[in-house]
Amino acid sequence: MFEIIAETAAEVVVEVLFRIPVILYRWITGKDGERINDYKTDRKRFIQFEGMKKRILVEERDIALVKSKISETLGELAESLVIDDFQFQTTDQGTIIHAPRSISFFTFHFLIQALGRRDIVAIGLVESTRFAYSAYNDPNSVNVIGQTYMGNRFFISLVEDYSKKQFLRVNNRIKTNPAYKVRALKNELRQI
Fold first, then answer.
1. Cβ neighbourhood burial of 79 (10 Å; 0-12, 13-18, 19+)
2. Of 116, 165, 160, which is closest to residue 139 (Cα–Cα)?
3. Phi, psi for 98 (deg, rounded to 5)
4. What pLDDT is attached to residue 28?
5. Could you report the per-residue pLDDT of 14-39, keeping only the tens digit for each?
6. Cβ atoms within 10 A of the Cβ of 152, count?
7. What is the DSSP-derived secondary structure letter of residue 5?
8. Count of alpha carbons within 13 angstroms of residue 126, beta-carbon side
9. I want to staple 135 with a disulfide (CB 3.0 to 4.6 A). Which of 54, 89, 123, 124 is the partner?
10. SS3 call for 128
């Protein structure tokens, strides 16, 4: 509990300290942040993706169909992962896909986007002891969008290089689906 309060306080302090220079920069230059794929970036939230727990929640109970879509997507990438690296758990609502720890930031989010574009509702849930976020394919752009545990909305552009640093592009003006909030998804998983 103390860690959550400390993390919240730290995020508020960082948000306030970061906001002031951004506002001054915009006021002086007249520029309104970096624009990527139709979204502006207010700030980058760097994460340590490698050590985080990664799951994809899909609203499809047919595991054979889900596996075939994931296999097709992995075949499009230069990734050494195979379908046997993933674990699948069927629930009343769909399937939980447990991604391997070795999956890259790009591949994980590309899978979410690819499943979404293949008419399978897929929501990624990424967690560590101090941070969590949910992400899904944005129907209005070529990005993956989502929300952090603290409610910050963000987008991920898959045209960037994430091999050295992984980050979320925070933009709280993005409209996200309230059903895909981290707390709601975690509560749903607890009931399973």
1. middle
2. 116
3. -95, 110
4. 45
5. 455 555 555 555 444 434 456 666 78
6. 19
7. H
8. 26
9. 124
10. coil
| Residue 109: strand, helix, or coil | helix
Q: Decide if pLDDT at 103 tops 50.
A: yes
Structure tokens at 116: 């979404």
Answer yes or no: are the C-beta atoms of 95 and 60 closer than 8 Å: yes
CB 113 within 8 A of CB 105: no
pLDDT at 100 over 80: yes
Helix (H, G, I), strand (E, B) or coil at 24: helix
133 and 147 in contact (C-beta within 8 Å)? yes
Q: What angle do CA 33, 39, 41 make, to 5 degrees?
A: 35
Model-level pTM? 0.80
Q: Tens of pLDDT along 124-154?
A: 999 999 999 999 999 888 999 999 999 999 9
What gap in Å lies between CA 178 and CA 111, rounded to an integer? 22
Show the tokens assigned to 93.
Answer: 């609502």
pLDDT at residue number 45: 94
